[in-house]
Amino acid sequence: MSEPIIRIEGLTKRFGAVSAVDKVDLEVARGELFALLGGSGCGKTTLLRLLAGFETPDSGRLLIDGHDMTGVPPHLRPINMMFQSYSLFPHMTVAENVGYGLRREGVAKTETATRVAQALEQVKLSDFATRRPAQLSGGQRQRVALARALVKRPKLLLLDEPLAALDRKLREGTRFELVRLQAELGLTFVMVTHDQEEAMSMASRMAVMEAGRVVQVGSPHEVYERPTSRFVADFIGIANILAAPDGRWLALRPEKIVLSAAPPDTAHTAAGRIVDIAYEGGRSLYRVALDDGHVMTAATANVARIPDISFRRGESVWLGWAEDAGHLLDE
Amino acid sequence: MIGRARFAFTMLGFGYAFLYLPLVLVMFYSFNESRLVTVWGGFSTKWWSTLFANEAMLSAAWLSLRIAAVSATLAAIIGLAAGYALARARAFPGRSLFGSLVIAPMVMPEVVMGISMLLLFVGAERLFGGPDRGFLTITLAHVTFSISFVAIVVQARLADFDRSLEEAAMDLGATPWVTFLTVTLPLIAPAVGSGWLLAFTLSLDDLILTQFVAGAQSQTLPMRVYSSVRLGVDPQINVLATVVVMVAACALILSGWLTRRKA
C-alpha cells in the first residue's frame, strides 16, 4: 500500500484541563471519503481544525502526503476546507470568491478566469458568477463554497458538517452529488459529521469519536455490524445490549430479531409485551418489555402495503433471533 | 391609550426642544438684517457674505479643517490597530488594564490632558528644540483623544465579526497580512470610516485642549470664535455656527449610515 495521505500520530490538543483531542492515531488512504463521526464535544471538529492548521497540537505529529505539517500555518498546507457556514466573502461576487485562492497563488489572470468558469460549471452555477453570496440560496452557497475549495486542486478536501445547513430534501441530493464528485475527481475527502446516517451513507471508512479519542475505525458496514464497544453499538443505529453468558456483552440490531405471535423456531427466544410502536414508513419499530423486565427493540420491514398481521400496543408477542444474529463486544 | 401617546409625544417634544431650540434660533438669526445678534431686523443674507469675506475667520476655518483631516486619519490608523489588538489578542496579563487605558482619554478632563500635553511639548522643545507649537502639536493632541473613539468602534465591529471568514482566506492560501487587507479590512471599513468621522468632528470643535497646545500664530476656528465673542459679537457668529452645525450633522449622519451599512 502506498503512503497514506494523512498520518496522525499521538495527536493531542488540550483546551485548559480538557483534552479535546486525546492521543489520536489515524491513517487515511488516498482517494478515501473518510468520515469523522461523533456527538457534539467529541473532538471531531478540533481534529479537523488541527488538520487544516487552525489549531496547533500540544503533542503528536501530523503528516500529509509524507510531509510533516505539524507546525505549518494554514496558508501553506496543500489542503482546502469547506466550512460549515460556508464562510463566503460577502463583499465579493461568486466568481471573486471562487478565484480568491488562485489569486493568492499568483495564477495568471486568464488561467484564473478559465479555472473559475470550470469550477462554477462543475457545481452548475455558471449563471451566478456575478452575484453576491447574499443573493444566493443555501444550496447555491454550499456549491460556491465547494467550488472555491476545489478550484485550488487540493490533495485533500476537508468538509465541516457539509450538509448540516441544508434542508432535508436538498441534503439527500447533495449527499450523492458529493460522493459522485469525490469519485470523479479522485480526491481524498475528510468530513466531519454528527449525523450517523450521513456518515454511513457517504463514507468509505469512518472513525467514531468519543471524548477526544477515536473509539473505532472501519467501513460503515464493519462499524454497524461489528461494533467494538457498547458506546459504538449504541451510537450507530439502535442496539439491544444483552448480557452474554461469559460475562461479555452482546449487541443485537433490531432488524435481526423476528417478531411473532407464536414462539419462533430460532436459537434464542423471549416472550414479552409490546409497550411502544413507532411506524417509520419503511419499517416499524416495536419496543417490547420482556417478562424479566428488560426492554428490547425489534424492527419489521414493511414490505407489503397492507400487512397480513399487525401488532398492537399491549399485545403479547415472542421475539426470536439466530445464534449469529448478535455481535459480541470486546468490552 | 391616546392620552398616553399624547403624553409621550409631549415629553418627546420638550426633550427635543431643549436639545435643538438653541440651534434653530442660531440658524434663524443667521439670516438677520440687524447688527445686533438678538434683535430681529428682517431677512437678509448679508452676514453670510460678510463671513465668507472674513479672512481671519476663513484662515482659522481652513486650519481647523486641515488639523481635523490629518488628526482623524492618524487616529483612524492607530485606533484601528488598537481596536484590532483589543478584539483579537488572546488573554494576556494586563489585558483589561490595556482596555481601560484606551478608553481613559474619553473620560479624562480635557484640562488635565491639556496641561500634560503642554508639559510634554515644552519639555520636548527644551530637549530637542521642537516641535513649534502650532499645527503639529494641535494635531498630535487631537490624535491622542480621538484614538479612543476609533478603537472602540473598531473593537465593537470586530466583536461580532465572523472569524471563519479569515480562516477561509488563510485556508485558501492568504498570509495573515493579506487576509487582513483583503477580507478583514474591507468588511470593517465602514466602522473605521465612522470612527474617522467621529474623530474629525471631535477635532473640529475642540477648544480646551487646543488652547493649551496651540502657539501664538495658530488659531483654530473654535479659538477664533471664542475670542471674537469676548470682544462682542455680530451676526456673523450665527452664520458660522450654522455652517459648523451643518458640517457636524453631515458627518454624524454619514457616520451613522456607515455603521448601519453591513459590509
Summarize the structure.
The complex is a heterodimer of chains A (331) and B (263). Chain A is 26% helix and 32% strand.
Which helices and strands, and how do they pair?
The complex is a heterodimer of chains A (331) and B (263).
Chain A: E1 6-15, E2 18-28, E3 33-37, H1 44-52, E4 59-64, E5 67-68, E6 79-82, H2 94-105, H3 109-122, H4 138-150, E7 156-160, H5 168-185, E8 188-193, H6 196-202, E9 205-210, E10 213-218, H7 220-225, H8 230-235, E11 240-243, E12 249-252, E13 258-260, E14 268-279, E15 283-290, E16 295-301, E17 316-321, E18 327-328
Parallel strand pairs in A: 3-8, 3-9, 6-7, 7-8
Antiparallel strand pairs in A: 1-2, 1-4, 4-5, 9-10, 11-12, 12-18, 13-17, 14-15, 14-17, 15-16
Helix pairs in contact in A: 2-3, 2-4, 3-4
Chain B: H1 2-29, H2 46-52, H3 55-88, H4 95-107, H5 110-128, H6 135-159, H7 163-171, H8 176-204, H9 208-213, H10 221-230, H11 236-260
CATH fold name of chain B, please? MetI-like fold
Number of strands of chain A: 18
Average of the residue pLDDT scores of chain A: 89
Instruction: Note the main sheet of chain B.
Output: none
Quaternary form: heterodimer
What is the CATH architecture term of the largest domain in chain A? Answer: 3-Layer(aba) Sandwich
What's the SSE pattern of chain B?
HHHHHHHHHHH
The chain-level structural class of chain A is: alpha+beta
CATH architecture of chain B: Orthogonal Bundle
The first-to-last residue Cα distance of chain B is 41 Å
Number of strands of chain B: 0
* Name of the CATH first level of the largest domain in chain A: Alpha Beta
Averaged pLDDT of chain B: 87
Instruction: Determine Rg of chain A (CA atoms, Å).
Output: 24 Å
Q: What is the total domain count of chain B?
A: 1
CATH homologous superfamily identity of the largest domain in chain A? P-loop containing nucleotide triphosphate hydrolases
